[in-house]
Design goal:
Layout: H1 4-12, H2 21-28, E1 37-43, H3 62-69, E2 72-74, E3 77-78, H4 84-93, H5 97-100, H6 106-110, E4 119-120, H7 135-142, E5 145-150, E6 168-170, E7 186-189, E8 195-198, H8 211-226, E9 231-236, H9 248-256, H10 267-289, E10 296-302, E11 310-311, E12 314-315, H11 331-334, E13 338-341, E14 350-352, E15 356-357, H12 361-368, H13 375-378, H14 387-391, E16 401-406, E17 416-421, E18 424-429, E19 435-439, H15 455-471, E20 478-479
Parallel strand pairs: 1-9, 1-10, 2-14, 3-15, 5-6, 5-9
Antiparallel strand pairs: 2-13, 4-20, 7-8, 10-13, 11-12, 16-17, 17-18, 18-19
Helix pairs in contact: 2-12, 3-10, 8-10, 9-10
């Protein structure tokens, strides 16, 4: 059932947001030209250094690198969370996961496991509430055809893409990973093999068919249907999440060039990244063949940092020079690739060093579509409109600080909050209250903790972090009884 705020939005349309003059001005600009199509490529667990233009040494990504050459590439792009579901919620709502009380992935939030640590993590939402006016809600109301393909992970059937403003949903379920990347994309999942998983809406495949290829096939078919636009396409790949599986011939190719002095050492993962790259190339070629590339925004990013834990006896990836990986609030867990191509607007081949976050995609895409959004929802949107940066990479946002909150355990972390304030990064761990302070401009690897030598700065940033948690009503872990 639709919530009362959503019913009002559908019946009466979306009210302008007078409190956001930047967004309003962007919406009024270029009103005579048609709004752009928008394609968002969201990769699952792709690390910041996993593609060539960000420094990968084993992986080959010529198509993504070419996209970067035609786009603006952000070097300080962040996911709002170090794990998947909360970041996806932040994209569709523009809000920090802590504000949404959605701080861990769906399955864990729905069925929490007993804590093995000193603290009891707080309860988390297991879905994106229908009361949130999503990006797809607003664009659909404007007349966009809204399409979702691939991973969803934002709730069960009552919170599926169809309930959140999408006209089409192919493959989106409450599950966070497929049982296999090979057709028919079904099988027993987990170490205990206690759950049968499948990817729906992908019938009549062939033996050896690969999920990343198939999702791209379906996206290309949809583009043929909706190319007269405007359309908003979520192509949210399951790759490069576990299970780490790739086509045997591609694995052999990367294994043949593997060297001991490379940071990346997993040939199967490298083959998954290579397959992703091939399919990004196919999708971009399709936009050109359809004659719509010049009026289509392409956004490429990841939902969190790369996985560094072992899978089938081998570490998945290496986020060097960043520290740690998925689950952690060190840079390896939250800093991700960010590439945006907006023909006629973004200067090609440019690099922007301004801090950006997945929460920013909501107001940015609305500004691209010249849509002022829903006034009530926008009052608590945490993201910033990046259109000024997309026009001028040297521009500055009216924001100095990004915040992160993960009050849970993961193989790479204990419960923690963090902020990045300019060049400074502070982490506050809840088990013992200890602080870690880093200057990312001089220490991107977060190897020199300055909290003891700079106690005043650490204390000031901790107070700022604490005040933010109170402002968004962040849920905190408690001491176990």
């Amino acid at each position: 059932m639709l919530s009362f705020p959503r019913i009002l939005a559908v019946l009466f349309g979306f009210l302008p947001l007078a409190a956001n003059p930047t967004l309003t001005a962007s919406c009024r600009a270029d009103a005579a030209s048609p709004p752009p199509n928008i394609v968002m490529i969201l990769v699952d667990d792709l690390g910041w250094a996993d593609i060539g233009c960000y420094g990968a040494d084993l992986h080959e990504t010529p198509h993504i690198d070419r996209l970067a050459d035609e786009s603006m590439r952000f070097t300080n792009g962040y996911a709002a969370a170090a794990i998947c579901s909360p970041t996806r919620a932040s994209i569709l709502s523009g809000k920090y996961p802590a504000r949404l009380h959605f701080t861990i992935w769906h399955e864990y939030a729905k069925s929490p496991r007993p804590s093995k640590g000193r603290l009891q993590p707080p309860a988390s939402m297991d879905h994106l509430p229908l009361e949130e006016v999503t990006l797809s809600d607003v664009l659909k109301q404007q007349g966009y055809t809204t399409l979702h393909l691939g991973k969803w992970h934002l709730g069960d059937a009552g919170y599926s893409p169809e309930t959140q403003g999408f006209d089409v949903n192919i493959g989106g379920t409450h599950w966070g990973a497929p049982a296999t990347f090979f057709w028919p994309y079904s099988g027993w999942f987990g170490r205990a093999k206690d759950e049968w998983r499948y990817v729906p809406d992908l019938p009549f495949g062939n033996e050896g068919e690969y999920l990343t290829d198939r999702l791209t096939d379906e996206a290309m078919k949809l583009i043929d249907r909706v190319k007269d636009g405007p359309f908003y396409l979520n192509l949210w790949y399951h790759t490069v999440h576990t299970p780490i599986e790739a086509k045997p011939k591609d694995v052999e190719r990367y294994a043949s060039v593997l060297r001991g002095n490379l940071h990346h050492q997993n040939p199967t993962y490298a083959a998954m990244v290579g397959s992703l790259d091939e399919n990004v190339g196919r999708l971009l070629a399709k936009l050109g063949e359809a004659g719509i590339a010049d009026n289509t925004v392409v956004i490429f990013t990841s939902d969190n940092g790369g996985t560094i834990v072992e899978h089938r006896g081998m570490p998945v990836t290496n986020n060097f020079p960043l520290r740690s990986g998925k689950g952690s609030l060190y840079e390896g867990g939250i800093r991700v690739p960010w590439i945006i191509r907006w023909p006629g607007v973004t200067p090609t081949g440019t690099i922007c060093e301004e801090m950006v976050c997945s929460t920013d995609l909501y107001p940015t895409i609305l500004a691209m579509a010249r849509n002022e959004g829903d006034a009530d929802h926008n009052r608590t949107v945490d993201g910033k409109n990046l259109v000024p940066l997309l026009k001028d990479p040297a521009a500055k946002l009216e924001r100095d600080t990004l915040y992160f909150h993960y009050p849970h355990y993961y193989p790479t972390t204990t419960p923690v909050s963090a902020l990045r304030d300019g060049d400074w990064k502070l982490l506050e761990y809840f088990e013992d209250g200890h602080l870690e302070l880093y200057n990312l401009a001089r220490d991107i690897s977060e190897s020199h903790n300055l909290a003891a030598s700079m106690p005043d700065r650490a204390a000031a940033l901790q107070q700022k972090l604490s005040a933010w948690r109170k402002s968004v009503d962040a849920r905190l872990p408690t001491v176990k009884e």
